[in-house]
Amino acid sequence: xxxxxxxxxxxxxxxxxxxxxxxxxxxxxxxxxxxxxxxxxxxxxxxxxxxxxxxxxxxxxxxxxxxxxxxxxxxxxxxxxxxxxxxxxxxxxxxxxxxxxxxxxxxxx
Amino acid sequence: xxxxxxxxxxxxxxxxxxxxxxxxxxxxxxxxxxxxxxxxxxxxxxxxxxxxxxxxxxxxxxxxxxxxxxxxxxxxxxxxxxxxxxxxxxxxxxxxxxxxxxxxxxxxxxxxxx
Lengths: 109, 114
Prior knowledge:
The complex is a heterodimer of chains A (109) and B (114).
Chain A: E1 4-5, E2 10-14, E3 19-21, E4 24-25, E5 32-38, E6 45-49, E7 60-61, E8 72-74, E9 83-90, E10 97-99, E11 103-108
Chain B: E1 5-7, E2 10-13, E3 19-24, E4 31-37, E5 43-50, E6 53-56, E7 65-68, E8 75-79, E9 88-95, E10 104-105, E11 109-113
Parallel strand pairs in B: 2-11
Antiparallel strand pairs in B: 1-3, 3-8, 4-5, 4-9, 5-6, 7-8, 9-10, 9-11
């Protein structure tokens, strides 16, 4: 069963426009949700995790258990935000990580 | 801290040969995860190891694939008798302990089977 779904493979927004990258998950119990980012020619790195409730590089993500979603949002996109974004889920024991297929974000100047 | 290291970065093998992919976790990290990324697909979990133990290998193909994380040295992902379908990017990640679930990724090894 697909644990993490990112419905948009590609997303383009203009600089300064709001951006939302969608993520829906399927998991019984209390998962931990993450967003990872991969900039061009760099390795995959953690952007934020839901339990820390922090804003990183202007991005925030709220876990909505009713809708089983963990969408990533930023009010004003910047060119340097162009990257590949992956939503990920960890089971309660941390044994497995499930990644979505990723969304490639392009911010148009 | 140099971060998670993987080598080689690129590996070319002919069908039927063996591929060995190495992963050195970050200093102080005792948990290692291996993922495979096929073209046009996301990261797929393969195996989770701690030092000298395989904790979860439910994502690993039953045949030809094996992984180890010895007491000394890097973690090794071994693919025997490679086939064209094994061509992919293989990523390793490490984490410090079971209570902290964020993972730190290596740059990946791109395996090409000709």
